[in-house]
Amino acid sequence: MATTTDIKNGLVIEYNNDLYQITEFQHVKPGKGPAFVRTKLKSLASGRVIDNTFNSGASIYPVRVERRKFQFLYKDEVGYNFMDNESFEQISLDAKLLTGADLMKEGQEVEILINTQNDAPLTCEMPPFVELTVTYAEPGMKGDTANSPRKPVKVETGATIMVPLFIEQDEKIRVDTRTYDYVERVK
Question: Which of 50, 83, 150, 167 is deepest in the core (most CB within 10 A)?
Answer without folding.
Answer: 167
